[in-house]
Every structure is written in C-alpha cells, then in structure tokens.
Queue: 2 jobs
Job 1
Amino acid sequence: MKKKSINNHTILLLITVGLFIILYGAGYISYGVIETKGFEKLQTFLDILRTNAALICIACGMTCVMLTGGIDISVGSLVAMDCMILAVGMEYQEISPTLLVPFVLLIGIVFGAVMGYLIGYLDIQPFIVTMAGMFFARGMTAMICTDQVNIAKSNWFKDLAAIKVYMPFDIGAVVNKRGVKMVPYVNVAVLIALVVVILVFLMLRYTRTGRSMYAVGGSHTSAALMGLNVKRTKMITYILSSFLCSIGGICYCMNTMCGTTTQALGLEMKAISSAVIGGTLLTGGVGNVFGSFVGVLINGTIQSIVSFNADLTRLGGTVPNVVSAFLLFLFIMLQAVFAKLRERKQG
Amino acid sequence: MTFPGVKALQNVDFTLREGEIHALMGENGAGKSTLIKCLTGVNDFEQGEIHMDGKPIRNHSTLDAQKNGISTVYQEVNLCPNLSVAENLFIGREPLTKIGTISRKAMLNRARELMQKLDIQVDVAKTLDSYSIAIQQMIAIARAVDMDCKVLILDEPTSSLDDKEVEKLFILMRSLRDQGIGIIFVTHFLEQVYAVCDRITVLRNGQLVGEYQIADLPRLKLVAAMMGKDFDDLQSIKSKEDEAVSDELEIEARGLSHARKIKPFDLDIHKGEVLGLTGLLGSGRSELARCIYGADRAQTGTLKVGGKETTISAPIDAMRLGMGLLPDDRKAEGIVEDLSVRENIMLAMQSLKGVRAKIPMDKQMEITKKYIELLEIKTPSTETLVKQLSGGNQQKVIIARWLATDPDFLILDEPTRGIDVGTKTEIQKLVVELARQGKSVIFISSEIEEMLRTCNRLAVLRDGEKVGELTENLTQESVMKAIAGGERN
C-alpha cells in the first residue's frame, strides 16, 4: 500500500545531482583532459543549456503535470505547431512577431484549457486526452504548411534570437589560436528558460495552487476530502503545461529559426525522462522543477558526450541515439540502485 | 438511500450530545456507514431531517458538512502522505503573506502550536508518511479540531492500530470530549467501546435497535442487540471432544527464512489442525505465512508438504500443492473490486486449471451458488460487482474462492479484521469445521480471544522470529505473556 522512497524525496534529487557531476566529470576528463577536444570549456556547458532551453521550459510544465499524477504527451507536437505558426506567420503572412508571440502563447493556454477540462472535469485519462492533443497539433502543423519554412525575413524576433549574452566579468574566457579572446555566451532562450525554472519553483513552493498540485498527486481522494478543488487544480495544471510548452516552442524556434512538420519529434519523451531522472515520480506527488532542470542537463550532457566521441559521430545516423539510450538506461539503473541501497540501510 | 438489494437505512433517529463519545454499533450492512454518509453529505437522504444546535441543516457535500462543523476521520487516513504534517493540517487554508503567497514560517508555527495544544509529539516539518498510521490519524483529528468542528466522526479509526496507539488515541478523544466536542465512534472492537464511550446506539438491518447508556448495556447484551438473536455463546465454537487432529503431518518446515522479513523457523502442522500465529503487529506473522506459501520466496531451509519435500518458488506452486492464502489486505491483495461475485469466486480455480481451460458457465453458476448459500454471502445476485458488497461479505467471497479449489491447507491472514461480530463468529465456525474435515489451517488474528476459540496450537512470534509454541493452558494471560516475552513488561 504505502509508497516507498517518498520518505526521502530529496534523496533522489541529491543522487541525481551527484550522478550529474560524475557524468559531467567523466566527459570533462575524457574529452577535456585526456583528449583535448574542448569539453573543458565553459562554452560546452552553456551550449548544453542553449540547445536544451526549450526542453527546460517544457520539462517544468511536465513536472507540474506529473506531480498531479498525470502525463502530457502533447508537448512535442505543440512545439512543432508553435514553430510552424511563427514561421509561416513571419515569412508568408508577414505578420509582426509582436502579434505572433502573444498569439502562440494564447494558443497554448486554450489548448491546455481544453485538455485540462476533459481531464479534470470529465475525468478522462490524461494519456488519452493528451494523445489526442498530440495528434491534433501535429496534424494542424501539416495543415498550416507541409514544407519546411525558414525564417529569413528580418524582424525583432530574428534579432532577438541572434543576441549573444556574454558571461559577465569574462568568466571562463579563453584565447583561441588566432589570439582572439572568446567570452562564453548564451542566448535569450536560456535566460527565458532560467526565469521559467525559478518562477515555477516558487509557484510550486509558495502558492496554494502549487501545493494543491502536490496534494492531488499525493492522494486524489484525500485532497478532495480536505476541501481542495481537485478538478480546477488539474485543469490549471494542464493550462500551465501547455503555456510553458508554448514558451518552450518560442525558445525552440529561436534556435532552429524554422518550422517543419517533423520538428520536435519525441520531445515529450525527453521531457518525461528528464523529470523522472530528476526525481519526479510518475505516480505523482513527489518531485520539483530543480530536479527536472538537472534531468535536462543530464540528457544534454549524454548527447554532448556522444557528439564529442569521434567514432560515434562518424557512424552517424541513429547510432548516437542508441548510445545515449544506453547511457540513460545505465543512469536510471544507478539511481534506482542508490535509492534501494539507502532504503536497505534505513530499513 | 438504497443500495442494491437492500434498503440501507430506514427511519433511524440518532442524537449526539455536546461533550460525549457516542458509539455507533452494528453488524456490517447494519447501516452505520450509510448513516454517517447521510450526516456528512456524502449521500443524500430521502426522508427526515438533521438538526444541529436546534437549527435544521442539510449537507450536500463533505465541504458543506465541514462548514457546518461536522468532520470525519476514516480508517484509511485521508491526508496526503507526500506533504508535511504542517501542510496536511493547513492545506487549502494556509496562512498567507501580504502578496498572497504561502507563509511557510507562520504555517509551521501554527502547526507546532496546535500539536502542542493536543499533546501530539511530531516534527511538523517532516512528511506525513514518516509517521505511523496512529499519528496520522491524530493529525487528521487535529485538522478537524482546528477547523472548528463540533461533531467529530471517527469511522473505524482503531482497525490498524496496536494497543498502545489505541490508548493514545483514547486520551486525545477524552480531552476533546472535555472540550465539548461530540464524538461519534464507529468500531468493531467491543472492548474499545467500553473503554472510551459514554453512550451506544445500535443499528441492525438499517433500523434503529436502541440508544443505551454504557452502564445499561453489558457486553453480551450489546452483541445480542447487534445480532438480533440470542446467539450461541461464542465460547462454545470449539469443544475439546471433536478435535480431529491426526498425527500425520501436512506441513513440515525446517529452517525456512526470508532475509529481513523472517528469521529461520521450524514449523509442523498436522492434518486437521488449526495453528494460530500470534504476536504483535509487525512481529512476522504474515511474513511467516507468506514464506510458506511462496508469496515471499524462502531463501533457506526445506519444506515438506504431505510428507514430500518440495520447493515453492511462487504462489502457483503452492496452489498446485493444495494450499490457499487469504491475505490480510483485502482491498489490495484479495478481492478484485470490479469483477462480479462469480468471477471472484472462480479466480483461484481458473488459475489452477490454467487460463485456457474454460470452465462451463453452468458449472460456474453451480459452484458460485453453492458457496453463496454455504457461507451465507449477502449479495443480490451472482453477477453483482464485489465492490458493492459490505466488507464481511467481500471476505466471504475470498474464502469461497479458496474453498472452491478444495485445498488441503489454508492460510487465513486476519480473516476477521474489519468485519462484524456475527460474520466473525461464522468465519471462526467455518475454520473449525474445515479442520474437522481433515484440512489444515493457519489462522492469524490480532484478537487473542478469537485465537483461543479456534486454534489447537499457537506459534508465537516476536520481532520477525518464531519464539515458541503454546499447546497447553491456552489462556489470554499465558498468550499475552508469551507475546510480550520475558524481558519486557
């Protein structure tokens, strides 16, 4: 009956952080010290953040959903739809991003509200509802346009995406072969993602809505008996998830500067695995966004290590995927082993 | 309010006075739960009125009830195990800061104050599931008290508590009573009624039997009132003459153990014998039984069944050898709520025959009807979903499931927990009857009286170890001494 390991919520998180340091350390030593390929540079780490800024936002939303005991598999398709709307809007319709960006965010809210209503008030399985959402969004993407649309026309969105935000005080700066000083930088998407992490963290910890999400995931019936509005909480959660996903979609578009029908395929699974690695239980009630953030970093580090390995990248295609899957598997196993060991020690 | 087949509550009057603990008694299906559900707004009622402080009230939801000052604490604690104690106390009504966020500091302080006032010693910042069910229940009560409740309903709060925890709960109940709170106490434990209550209301078959002062209703009369008949004395279930214990061994276990759960033990069970496993909660009673049955695979030792050495690595092996296990957690491990009575009864037989062997429908009906009749299972039909039956009847369905496989050896883990006195007696009789037919039974119960009435022999467990056996001089005192052990008082 009793769920194990809930007792030590924080331990999973600590294990995750510890393993992340080991993983990153391994990459650092292999491709930074033994073979000097540049893994030791701060820019490598910031690149992980840069490529995964969208995933960070999405994983935050996913964490909230999983806290309530639900799941949202529509996020990848929603990102694709957002990107397509932005790209087609800017390129073909020549609508200003000043209108398009709020429009995309609004779509996220409406999209989440519809799914949240079905899940919260009509009590339909989240998996089924968000799967329908997934098919819908992917289908809509193709309906808008089946070609790849690149954002080429100049506007503030494009300029914003191109801004390099350099590290202050030249932290981690290196001088390259030609004697040019390179200061590590991130882009605006990373800043957005970090703000999202902090805001969602505060929301989950210090607002009634946030605590209700934990309560609903801990025990659905108890939460209702304690007078919480379970239905509304669920609906809000899915709205939040889709909204954060749309913010993620905008970040994603800043990186790719295009819209295609096959964009962000399987991104929902990356978001889920990041949350799980970060210590969020699929059964709900346990987890926090900081863990999911670290989870994204771990996924990103694995990808990065694979890309630094010349043998693997030469094989190309899906081989890196298999390797990162294997590493992910190993990681989850280690995490479980540590959790078990600790449990045994206590019990 | 009607449930399938039966009218759940008819024309019942119930009065609760300020500052009293009022026991609500009755067999399963007597209408206690329905009455409570009507009071707390879970169910709506067709006729009648509820007055509180002289004013008529009507609750349409538990929220309504809480606003009117009626709070309920259930057997299964309705709090969130993943949240801190303080949050469980204040969720939905947390103290807020000026900008509308939760002030965790104020919440912790208020929680500490509340716990101090009620003399519950917990660290309010820890998560709820770091505490025992007993403490969790007290926290649930504290939440109710803090929400200005005037009527506190405790629905079977003591079912999963040990004696010490029950005593703590009683102390809390008494202090609340002295503060003027009216408490409705529902329980199956007669001793507890007499230990803590001021007044008793008895229901039977959805009707009021009567309201009594505790002093006016001795135990036997209470049981008689609940059952509605002068039942044959509980003591006389087992008479020494018809004990049919043979010398032949059914089970012979040597050095069986399971790491961290049960230390190596030897155990013999004869044909036609009822062996009781006794000990405190968590002493390893269930674990020992599960080890024999293969639910937890034994890691050392040998096991002979019917004289032949065997290894049981999974429950299906045990079933093929003619064993059956009735687990203690009926809801989680026993019944399949969404299947019908018939399907639940056929389960074990089906898995024994293999999933592909179809048992003809008329055969299924025959078996089901036979056991419904034999065990007097109260169900409107063979196709009623099991979740619609009362607890006692659900238990009977699981017993029927095993009886249908015609086992030689049955393990009954807490078969009488959470069910009414009448059904308890019937189950005890059944156990004795099975033994008389030459079957062997392991019987586990927390109630020593019950063990004394049904068992031929008791094995005593303490802290995951079998520490002794009792055959002669089975009395409450001797058993309790054995359970407590020499070094403890």
Job 2
Amino acid sequence: MEGVSRPRCHTMKGRAGGKTGRKILLVGNPNVGKSVIFHHLTGKYAQVSNYPGTTVMVTSGNASFGDGSVVIDSPGANSLSPRSEDERVTRDLLLKEDQAVVIQVADTKNLSRALLLTAQLSDAGTPMVLALNMTDEAELKGINIDIQKLSHVLRVPVVATTATRGLGIQELQNTLEEARPAKLRVRFSSDIEHALLQIEELIPELPLGRRAVALMLLCGDTELENWLQQRAGPQAVQAIYSIAADLQSRNARPIDYLINRVRSREVQRVMGHVAYRGVARSNYLADTFGRWSTHPLAGIPILAFILLLLYYVVGVVGAGIVVDLVESVLFGEYIIPAVGWLFALLPIPLLQDLMVGEYGLVSVGLTYAVAIILPVVGFFFICFSLLEDIGYLPRLAVMANVVLRRIGLSGKAVLPLILGLGCDTMATLTTRTLESKKERLIATLLLALAVPCSAQMAVILALLGGISGTAVALFFAIILIQLLLVGFLASRILPGDRPDFVLEIPPIRVPQLSNVVTKTLARMEWYFKEAVPLFLAGTFILFVLDKLGALVFVESAFTPVVEGWLGLPAATAAAFIMGFLRRDFGAAGLFMLAEQGLLDANQILVSLVVITLFIPCIANLFVIIKERGLRVGIAIVGFVFPYAIVVGGLLNLLFRALKVGL
Amino acid sequence: MTSDRQVEEVLEALWVAVDEKRQVARESLFLAHPPEPLLDIAEIDQALELAERAGLVSVDGEALYLTEAGEALARNVVRRHRLAERLFSDVLDVGQEEAEVSACRIEHLLSPDATDSVCILLGHPTTCPHGKSIPQGHCCHQRIEEARPLVIPATRLRPEEDATVAYLSSEGQDRLSRMASLGVFPGLRVRLIQRHPTYMLRFGETTLALDEEIVGEIYVRRNIHNIKPAAGRKTLLGRRRGHRG
C-alpha cells in the first residue's frame, strides 16, 4: 500500500491481520448513520456527527456479536473516485481491506444517491449487504421502499434499520453471511467500455474488481499512480495514462461525470421499480426553525442568541465556575501537593522542579491541560455536539459563508473558527477537513492570530468589563478588523483558488441525549490523545529553556519594545512570555499588574490586543507545525509576532495622538 | 445547394479540428463524423476545391488552413449546429442521437436572425450538450433577452420555484465531477430554497448550500406555468383570485 495515501487510523493497529476474523467495512454517503450502526455492532464510540466531514479518523473495533469479526467505520463518501480527503480514505480502505464484507449504509430518504455508490461497489465486486437506515424519517416523508424487490434487483440482502433506536441491527448481523457482490453494473458508451478493456488488460490480477480500478484510473485518479507502479511497472502506468488522456481529449466533459450520468440513469430506472411516494408529513416546528435559521434576517438573531448561550455556558459556567473548582480545589489543594510530596521523597531537586516547579509538568502542563482547558473544552464540546446533533452547524456555515468567502475561506471554515473560541489548538487540528491547501493555511493563520480561546476570554472580559462596555466593544472591534484584514490580504496574496462551497444541509432533528453524550465523549478522547501530549511537550521545552536561562534573555530583549513602542511597564514583558506558554496565564499576569495599579485603562487594552494577537500558546504552535509543516510554522511565527506588536504600538500611538482615555 | 452544404460541412470540420487543436488533414475531415462519414473522399475533395476557389480555405500540400472569411463562415455553422443541439436536447427533449442528426440538418438551414432567436430562447447558452463551447453571436454580446427564456441559470429562479435541470455549463472538471457524485444531472427536479445569504437548492430529500457561481452554472428548464405572471408572487395572485371569487 505504499504510495496510496494511508488512512489515519488510531485504533486499528494490532488487530488488523493476524486473526482469522473477517473484516466488516461500513461504507456510505456522508451523514447516513454509519457511526451509529458502528456503535451498535461494536459497543464502541465512533465520532458521530450531523455535520458532513467530521469523521476524519478511521475507527475500528471488535464486533460485539463475538465471532472475532472486526468492524471498520469509514468516512462518508459520495464516490469512489475521490474528490476529498474523506473519500480518499474510504477508497483506500476498500483497496486495502479487499477481503472485507461491506455493509453499505444508506439514507432511505436519499436512496438514489446511495445507489450511485452501490453501482461503484458493484463494479468493485465486493460482497455486500445494504442497510436502509433512517427508515423512521423516510416514513415521515412518505417515502416507501419495496425492500424485497430492491433486494431482488440488486441480488444482495437489504435490511431496513433505524439505528438511532437500534431497530434492524440484529437482522443486519444475521444477513452478513449472505453478503455477495451487488448487481448494478451498467454498460457505458462504447468508447469508455473500449478504454476500460484496454486498461484492464494492463493491470495485474487484483482481489478487487479490475473494472473498478480501471474506472478509477479513467476518472483521472492520479493518487493510484505509485500503487500501480509497483504492481504493473512504469510502462503499463504510462500506457494507462495515455489511454485515459486520449479518452478525455475526445470528450469535453470529465469522464467520471459521463460515467456517473449513465449510472444515474440506471439508478433512476431501479428507483422507478422500488420507490413509492406517499403523503409526506412534516415536522412543522423543526422545519420552521430550519428555515428561519438560514433566513437572511431572522437567521441573525438566532445566530446571536446561540453564540450568547455558547458564551454563557462555556465562558461563565465552564471557564469560570468549574475551572475555579477544579484548579484551585482539586489541583491546588490535592494533586499538586500530593505529587510534590511524592517527589519530595526523591532527593533530586531537578526532578522535583520538572514535576512541580515553576514550569513543572504537573504543576503547569497537566494543570493547564486538565484543570483549565479540559473543563472549558468539555463544556464547549457538549454545546458543540448538541448543536451538531440538532443540525444547526451546517446552517451556521450557510450564514457565515457570505463573510468567509471574502477572506478566502468557505462557509465550512466556520466550524474550526467557532471551535477556536473553545481551544485554538483543537481547532487547528480540525482544519484538516477543509478542502484546499490555501483554505487550510488561511484558517490556521487566522486561528493563531485573531481567535481568542475561551480560557483567555474569561480573563479578557473580566479585565475589560472592569473598565467599560466601550472598552469591550473596542477590543472586539480591533480583533475582528485584524481577522478580516489579514484574511482578506491572505486570500489575495496566497496562491490558489477560492474553494467552492458545497455543503449538504441535513434536516433539523430533535437532539438525542445518547448521541450528544457519545459525540462529547469521542471528542474528549480525541482531546486527550492529540492535544494533551502537546501541552506536556510544550511545558517541557519551556522548562528546558528556563533552566538554560533563555527565558530571562528573551524577556530582557523584549523589554525595550514593550516600554518604548507599546508604552507598557517592563513587567508586562514577563506576562507576554508567560502568555505564550499559557494564554490565560499571560492575561492573568496582566490582571495582577492592573490590580496593582501599574496599568491604566489604555495600557490594559493595548496589552490585551497584543497578547490576543500572539500565537495562543506553545501547544498551538506545535499543532501548526504538525499539521502544516515546519516551514509554514516558521512563516506564521514570523508574521504573527511582529504583526501583533505593530498593531499594539499603533494603538498606543493613536491613543496618545488623540489623547483619549478609556 | 448540395455543394453549399458540402462546403459548410468541410469548413465546420476544419474549424472544430483547429479549435480542438487536432491535426488537420484530408483524412481527419473524412473521420469528422463517426461512425458514418457524411461525405466520402471524392465529395470532400470536391468541396475543398470549391472552398479554395471561393477563398475560404488555403491548401498547402497536405495541410489545410481556414482563411479569415472561411473562419467567419465556419464559426457560424458551428454556432448553428451547437445551438440546434441545445434546442433539440434541452427544450424539445428528443434523445441525444436524434438531436445530433437533426442539428446536422438544421445547421445548413437556419438564417442569422433565426439563429439569434434560438440563442435568446435558450438564454445564450455557452456550451453544447457535449460540453463544447458555442461561438457567441451579436445577441450574446448585447445580452438581448426579449424572448423570455425557458432555460435559465438556476440563480434566476424565484425562491421556492421548481424546475428541471437542463444542463450544467461548468468548465471546471472538478465541479462537474462533484455535482455528478451528488447526483446532479440533466433531468433532475430541483427547487431553489433561498438566495440569501447563500444559495440553497433542494432535490429529492437532499438540500445543498452552494456558492452563487456554481448555482449559476446549473441551467434549468422552468415550468411553463411558472413563467407567465411576470411580476407575480404567490400571495399576490392568491389574493387576486380571492377577490374575483
């Protein structure tokens, strides 16, 4: 499998191969309930979502029906000729797990789209079972599918399921034995068929239907090149690409469009035999809310209300009340003293320092990750999962697209940006789901620069709220202007096209507690696996820098800028340095300076602007480097820090020139 | 008459070959209409001779060139052919083959005025059903729209209006492929849900939010009864009807 981009899998290791157990692969269009079925089959949580594109990872688990089977959940795919990272992962899974039995999960309401995928699986010749999921919603819409007839036409078992209520799962398990290749092959126009035959002769024997691979190649799938080089040799690859190019040159439309068009006709024919439309009942309340939430006028107060609620739950309850409890009581009175006591037994001061010192792994790293960020992101994830389960998030993207398209992003980028209000480090990880390289880069940059995380937001509001409402408004106006300005410029300067915005809008649903809990837990797990180690690594580096005396050096080098250009007392330099370690610590440092009367209102605003525009924390920098590479990381650092200082300094000059005092 | 038709056929084949950057030779003219060539070798030679004498084509050994006059003429033939294809396949909804055959005949008959009328009727389409571009005419440059178009970009539907996808005019391969994987093809019934803040289309049980640019590339055939009331809105009409009753 060298060369084919490999699926990101975290839980697959160890179990793959080895055992005699068969593999069961869940495949389907986005947002059809694969992950819920996965949960029923394994008892494990996968990322369940009502927002297309949130399953970035591949999850697998042992089947709970105890025959040694392994169930693998794949990201949603509309096509096996990949157009997105998600589709690529799914396609690669099919190529790699060629012995697997496929359960294709379909949204019964959207059967024709599912059958388009079935036609592709049919070409691949993988044994499969079709699960018609969401039958409850289809029923409500008056859509009836003749299951027996469909099963007869496709020659595979078809099972009706309502996964959210666990209906049909048992039957699905029972029919797995009868899985076989679906019969939904279509004949394409003679020139395409001819090219297919030519290519099929050039590719070696495959467990997966050669026709399927030939089709992928004809559709211009260049990702397969390395994989093919190894199996068929460079000459065959050359020949295949010239066949594909020749065919394409004789057709003005992309080949996969032509191919899918023929498939679509066949699917419509099948649908004519098996689907019956009855009277649709609508969920009036849900539909009305859905319509209003994307209304150009009514959508805005709804958006404002939801953001306010989000702020209250995350900022006030999570970041305020719960953090206080966990940090000062649980960590302050029990854990840190306990660890300190434990290491006091070891007479090595350096080790003690490493654990509970000024930059200790427990006293700072773990406290930060668990006592401060965890409650905040935890509350944030609950809200986020709730909004996701309702189906609000895609509608938020619809509202945001107008603004975001001007700064080189598509509406989809609203997801990471909002997530950034919880934790920028986490949010940067989710920028993977964005489509183009340029969009991922702009989103990463804006998160680092101008999206304050919730840990810091509480301190910012406390500081500025103490001054005046005007100060709060001015602060957010300044930050928002930087976001729009830098985004606008970046979209102009960086190469690449603006990404297309194409997003499916699921129906508004009544949230289900079990779903929300599942999603929240899955995200928490993700946080622990991906983000916490970075917080610890960041703390460790600062510990080393501190021991080497580098921090003091940076601080003193920084002082002239702070005093001269920003017009702030020298002591704020330390707060800025701390701010890079822990954004909220930096802000808290400023809080203390303000309380001591060392900062006036103007200086508070200047210093908060600078610290907000700085890269949030060292963990965020690590994620940037991990996701975007070292070069981009350095470029972002090289831009963000000077930019923050320039903006702060200009603000300082402006205040002096206008002689305003807040 | 027959010789005129032959010359037009040859000019058209030459123009298409140049446009698609293919090699131009006598042989390729013969192959221009698979599977059955319209003209045999002798007819092609005859037509070329006529065209050369009329100053439409210059022959240099095996290589053939269109002169300026020949280019203009050929361009119009291609325009007529491709517009006719659109007319037959989108509006009259005959099969692709029937459309092709009919277009081949009508391309020699349409007057310039009639050609522009067809173009206006179809909303100045930019590509033929095969996706090849249609040379523009006067009416396209002036954006004349008096003949109320039946086929329009989906952006111009009214909110909540139903229509049928006639064709997709996307030039980008990625966009077309993407639409294809979502099941958006000619013949699909769609409804425009809203225009602001972002366009939303619904088909079957799928709702899609899309950039204006993409929606504008989806050409739809309106329902005739939706077109008549020029400035009508549902509520307005309903009230009017109520008064009468």
